[in-house]
């Protein structure tokens, strides 16, 4: 990506993906106009081999189909509904911390490293399984495993030449992809059908699809049919103090999490510098004019999130440095352009799960405070190699307020 940024400079340039012309955009004002337009710029079609991974979900739909699906999903992601799920998020995070404690004890004073990225990846899957499927979380966990394997199979085909009809040939990779796709679809179908049957078997007054996301979406579907800089150590101390001040030493309530301003700043700054989405594609559904540019129908437009997020023109000379306090006046005032932060997209198609993701991250940060919000335990977690380290770990827990019994 660094080589790409070095070679291709300028806010607008044309490049080709095979036979598909694409225009690269780095101007946040252009990005705002494109993402705020409901129907002029649409999601381009994916390679057929990637469809088993994405399906015809909200992110892939356009037009009235997108409107209908969005109206069904939106009620499940309102803050009032998400606040109810805070306790489940907290329970999953506490289970992870307990697991770390057990591993540290089992190490018997021997050095042991825990890969944090893998742990939090598992935690995210566990939270989604509990919050989205509640009583069906065990089955959901199996679905996630199959989906992760399906992801590897699909991504492996990205650089392959797309020969028409090749996806129908019974090659080993196609057979494996079909098998995993069927497993994911059948498992999800069984969970949905089981929930509906459970609803129908209940007494009329007690009928409820459930307070998890699956239940809320089924209900919605039925209804629809009817400027100071701090160094990293100081930032960690500030974070720790804020979490303790707002959440105390117990399990945080949803209303407490909304007061974690510095935590929000750190999360958004992390998404700005290390966001999971490097670029976003749109396709002109008709001849479109953007500023002084004309885009013929069918041309793809690539919005370069990474280049916008690290542009010194919009973020200043410290654009590549981690500085959460640039967000002290809010997301829209963090840069010279109010639309320069595109972590969750923008406009009507902005990420529907933004509130869920931020709430989950705040729960994890507040409950992990005795590990990740202390100077003693910053970085990767290791079980302690000697008696002094174990003593430091216990002092750290007391100092930060261990929420566990």
UniProtKB/TrEMBL annotation:
The keyword Calcium does not apply. It is found in: Membrane. InterPro entries: Cyt_P450 (IPR001128), Cyt_P450_CS (IPR017972), Cyt_P450_E_grp-II (IPR002402), Cyt_P450_sf (IPR036396), Cytochrome_P450_Monooxygen (IPR050665). It is a single-pass membrane protein. One of its GO terms (cellular component) is membrane. The keyword Metal-binding applies. Belongs to the cytochrome P450 family. Pfam families: p450 (PF00067). Its cofactor is heme. PROSITE patterns: CYTOCHROME_P450. Keywords: Heme, Iron, Membrane, Metal-binding, Monooxygenase, Oxidoreductase, Transmembrane, Transmembrane helix. GO terms for molecular function: heme binding; iron ion binding; monooxygenase activity; oxidoreductase activity, acting on paired donors, with incorporation or reduction of molecular oxygen. PANTHER family: CYTOCHROME P450 709B2 (PTHR24282:SF135), CYTOCHROME P450 FAMILY MEMBER (PTHR24282). This is Cytochrome P450. It comes from Dovyalis caffra. Heme binds at residue 351. Its main location: membrane.
């Amino acid at each position: 990506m660094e080589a790409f940024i070095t070679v291709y400079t300028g806010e607008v340039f044309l490049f080709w993906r095979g036979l598909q012309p694409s225009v690269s955009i780095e101007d946040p004002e252009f990005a705002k106009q494109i993402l705020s337009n409901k129907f002029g710029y649409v999601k381009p079609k994916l390679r057929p081999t990637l469809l088993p991974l994405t399906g015809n979900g909200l992110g892939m739909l356009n037009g009235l189909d997108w409107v209908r699906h969005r109206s069904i999903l939106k009620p499940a992601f309102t803050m009032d509904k998400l606040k109810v799920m805070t306790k489940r998020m907290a329970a999953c995070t506490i289970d992870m911390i307990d697991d770390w404690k057990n591993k540290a004890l089992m190490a018997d004073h021997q050095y042991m490293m825990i890969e944090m990225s893998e742990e939090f990846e598992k935690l995210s899957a566990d939270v989604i399984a509990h919050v989205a499927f509640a009583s069906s979380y065990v089955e959901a966990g199996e679905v996630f495993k199959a989906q992760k394997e399906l992801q590897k199979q699909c991504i492996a085909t990205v650089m392959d030449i797309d020969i028409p009809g090749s996806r129908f040939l019974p090659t080993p990779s196609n057979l494996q992809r079909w098998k995993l796709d069927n497993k994911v679809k059948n498992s999800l179908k069984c969970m949905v059908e089981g929930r509906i049957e459970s609803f129908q078997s209940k007494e009329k007054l007690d009928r409820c699809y459930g307070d998890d996301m699956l239940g809320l979406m089924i209900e919605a579907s039925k209804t629809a049919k009817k400027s100071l800089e701090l160094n990293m150590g100081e930032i960690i101390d500030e974070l720790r103090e804020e979490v303790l001040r707002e959440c105390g030493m117990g399990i945080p309530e949803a209303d407490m999490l909304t007061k974690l301003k510095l935590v929000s700043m750190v999360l958004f700054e992390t998404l700005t510098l290390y966001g999971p989405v490097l670029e976003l594609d749109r396709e002109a559904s008709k001849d479109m004019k953007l500023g002084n540019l004309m885009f013929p129908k069918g041309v793809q437009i690539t919005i370069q999130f990474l280049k916008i997020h690290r542009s010194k023109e919009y973020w200043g000379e410290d654009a590549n440095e981690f500085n959460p306090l640039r967000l002290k006046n809010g997301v829209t005032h963090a840069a010279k352009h109010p639309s320069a932060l595109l972590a969750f997209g923008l406009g009507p198609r902005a990420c529907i799960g933004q509130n869920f993701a931020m709430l989950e991250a705040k729960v994890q940060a507040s409950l992990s405070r005795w590990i990740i919000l202390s100077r003693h335990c910053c970085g990767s977690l290791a079980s302690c190699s000697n008696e002094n380290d174990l003593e430091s770990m216990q002092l750290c827990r007391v100092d930060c307020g261990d929420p566990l019994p």
